[in-house]
Fold this sequence. Notes:
Distance between the termini: 28 Å
Radius of gyration: 17 Å
Shape: globular
Strand order of the largest sheet: 1-2-4-3
Number of strands: 4
Oligomer: single chain
Number of helices: 8
Helix content: 40-55%
Largest sheet: 4 strands, antiparallel
Strand content: 5-15%
Amino acid sequence: MIKLIYHLTLHRSKCYLIQKYGKVFWKKFKANSDKTFAEILPQVPDIGDSIFSFSYEFGPSYIAWYKSFLELGSTQDEIIQNIWTMNEMMVTTIPRPFLKATGKIYLNGFRKKAATHVTRQVKGNLHPFDWAITYREINQNSFELDITECGLKKLAHQFKADGLLPGICRMDYLLANLMGTGFVRTKTLGDGDDCCNCHYDLIGKCNWSPEKGFTDRK
């Protein structure tokens, strides 16, 4: 899955990056990314069967693209905005109506696995690069997770790509928007807070709108 995410996203993003920067930039970007991805992939710890495995599998791609953009002189804000766009292009390989139709199912499955994750966590059975959470049921529609350790933050730090955060944290809003579910958060570890206080609604609404900024909804 890690390699599929990487190659599919680059394929989907090729025209976007060529249009924005030109063919020479694209060739250099892809060559740099391919090299970095190949170097880091064997060093990426396997966290096993985690409810956060899907999120974690994006990590090596994010790191490769971040380092490649950085090497080519892109600014921090520019890098994050490009990764947002590339991520959206990859996810929307799946038709948006289907994403919205299955959003509630996906989130409900995530919710059901949360309690098991906490049990494994208490027993000390999680990989050191896995996420540490507390979980709260609110009602049939809503639940909350407080994330006190983030696998993507750990992975980014290991490969000296700390600048990915808090930018990549914001993509939770993108995914909630595409899936037609509710999501809000006022703190993230990536912003230097003590946790990521995530509130989810199976049936809800979430704006992506990065142009409005991410001050109150980190």
